[in-house]
Amino acid sequence: MVVMKLSGIAVSPGIAEGKIYLVEEPKIAVQRVPSDPEIEKKRFDHALDETVSDLEHIRDTAAAQLAHSDVDILDAHVLMVRDPDLIDGVTRLIDEDRCNAEYAVDIVGRMFISSFENMNNEYMRTRAADLKGLLYRILCHLSDVQIPDLSLIREPVILAGKDINVSDALAVDQRYIKGFLTQSGSLTSHVAILARSIDKPALVGIRKLTKYIDQGDTVIIDGIGGQLIIDPEEEEIQLYRDKKAAYTEDKKKLLSLKDAETRTTDDHVVELYANMATQTSMDTIGDSGAEGIGLFRSEFLYLDRDSAPGEDLQYRIYKSILESMPDRRIIIRTLDVGADRFPKYIRRGREANPFLGVRAIRFSLQNQEIFRTQLRALMRASVHGRLSVLLPMIATLDELLEAKQIFAEEKEKLLENNIPVSDEMELGIMIEVPSAALMAESLAKEVDFLSIGTNDLIQFTFAADRMSENVSYLYQPLHPAVLRLIKMIIDGAHAHGRWCGMCGEMAGDLEAVPVLLGLGLDMFSMSETFILSARKLINSLNYKEMTKLAEQAVSMSSAKEVQELVREAIMNHNG
Ligand code: PEP
Ligand code: MG
Fold first, then answer.
1. Please, are residues 240 and 15 in contact by the beta-carbon 8 Å criterion?
2. What are the tens digits of pLDDT across the range 367-397?
3. Do the beta carbons of residue 279 and residue 345 sit within 8 Å?
4. I need a surface site. Which of 28, 216, 357, 365 has the fewest CB within 10 A?
């Protein structure tokens, strides 16, 4: 047999061997089949019991994890499945029409759904969506179709699909995720970011992936070389086990730098922080060498749920994050929803270009109750550690001033109620829109720090969708167009004595690090997997030399030229 190999973009390093779990909803074709009503009613009862038992299981699992603490909705789902009107409708149709249970569930279910949908009330429409999911689950049990419920995964798997949405991935108990494979996506798509954050290998942009893999296939992901090996033979398995052992060994050696400073040979000190997608990733932060958290993407608290997290729940989560690294700076970004990250309980307006639409700070300013709740939770938590609050996607000074006004109002209300807020709390903004990069100096005056979001900044600079593999060649962090914007941002921050960090993926790109260092970046925030390698590199570099290298780089005319310049510089350093 010829071993099948596919290439993809390696977006999270490491090697994993395991079974595929295809994230997709199997289609169920329901047909009317004349049947014995007594048998069908029993089948229906049994399917209801199984559905309720699934829901109880999901609820118990969710209750055990902090991020899933809002479990009441699952109890409400149990009541919906046990709804006497629904049960009565289905059994009556089975009796009268002598049809099979699947058919009766489908017909009666559709009637219920459309009556909910027609109620012209947001809450009822959400219930209609819930009911659709529950009926699908009942139909799966009736048809013996395996239900694609990711929270039921109880063995190690490699999640694969055309695309994997982050909410689905978060539903899986993270202990059971061995890696990720997707047909679409790029280095900066969110499943890639999640994979790096939980330190699992991932390949994205694998052409025609779903045509070549099946549920349960054994595969190897090579997240270093960008290869997917389907149905590997013994020889291949051994080869990759050796490669994995060497990779693990290299990682172990770097551990000696865990508590070291990041200091160039001529004593210029910078800080290396970690990006965090979920609060469970805090468990591994200790060994990563992170000197702080440079980006906690708070939207992950909002996604995998049925309603927005309340102030107290958020407060508890932020507090526990702050208390887990009491002396270190922890930067929590306010909600960045919209585009590819949309909680299901928020009504979504139609937008032809959602990445350019109501997202991040724009969403928060237009949905102030959600924003104010989050700010209050953050401010209350601020006394438990060293908190910095980061506002995403600021495009103009007016947006920043409006957000600051809201911030000040909420702070005042808390203080009036004798709820303490730390005086040390910093406020910063992400610079990820070219307009903000060009105006960085005037923005910097209004805040304590700037943080460069290169994932968006690069997509907007080149007008190239970060989710599209077809234009991924335009993700060119080393392009002088990007470097000039970055220089402007760093200089703008320094002109007002503010510090400047970077939390986009470029900060952990070892080819970009020497240039960023030379441009004067103060803090690099990256996936924890890259921190020790970046420290090793920076500790071997000379800051003055890198300043010259950066000067040269910004005056060049292509990414390729800059890349050659950097490679040569690194080679000279390594002897
Ligand atoms: C960025 O745009 O660089 C960034 C860090 O934000 P996100 O990837 O969450 O959009
Ligand atoms: Mg961004």
1. yes
2. 999 999 999 999 999 999 999 999 999 999 9
3. no
4. 216
Choose from 113-117, 353-357, 381-385 the range with maximum mean pLDDT: 381-385
Q: What is the pLDDT of residue 279?
A: 62
Residues near ion ligand 2 (Cβ under 5 Å): 432, 453, 456
Burial of residue 296, with CB atoms counted within 10 A of its CB: 0-12 exposed, 13-18 middle, 19 or more buried: buried
98-108 average pLDDT score: 94
Cα(284) to centroid(ligand 1), Å: 22
What separation in Å is there between the alpha carbon of 297 and the centre of ligand 2?
10
**Beta-carbon contacts of residue 319 (< 8 Å; ≥ 6 apart):** 380, 381, 384
- Looking at domain 4-24+150-234, its CATH architecture is 3-Layer(bba) Sandwich (3.50)
In whole angstroms, what is the distance from residue 96 CA to residue 205 CA? 52
pLDDT digits (tens, 9 = 90+) for 523-564: 999 988 899 999 999 999 999 999 999 999 999 999 999 999
Phi, psi of 417 (to 5 degrees): -90, 15
CB atoms within 10 A of CB 352: 6
* Mutation choice for ligand 1 from 297, 340, 394, 431, CB with most ligand atoms inside 8 A: 297
What per-residue confidence (pLDDT) applies to 66?
35
Residue nearest to ligand 1 atom 7, measured at CA: 455
HSE-CB of 41 using CA atoms within 13 angstroms: 14
R_g of the chain, CA atoms, integer Å: 26
**CATH class of the 269-574 domain in this structure:** alpha beta
The token pair that represents 485 in the structure block = 């914007």
Catalytic residues: 190, 503
Question: How far is Cα 570 from Cα 511, in angstroms, rounded to an integer?
Answer: 9
Other CB atoms within 10 Å distance of the CB of residue 58: 19
Q: Which amino acid is at 282?
A: M
Question: From CA 154, how far away is CA 530, in angstroms rounded?
Answer: 29
Q: Give the global pTM.
A: 0.73
495-506 pLDDT, tens per residue?
Answer: 999 999 999 999
Q: For 25-34, 274-283, 384-393, 402-411, which range has the lowest pLDDT when averaged over its residues?
A: 274-283
Domain range list for the chain: 4-24+150-234, 37-143, 269-574
**Domain at 37-143, CATH class:** mainly alpha
| Among the listed residues 435, 438, 324, 313, the one whose alpha carbon sits nearest the alpha carbon of residue 376 | 313
Q: How far is the CA of 453 from the centre of ligand 1 (A)?
A: 5
Q: Tokens 């005042």 label which residue?
A: 412
- 3-class secondary-structure state, position 178: strand
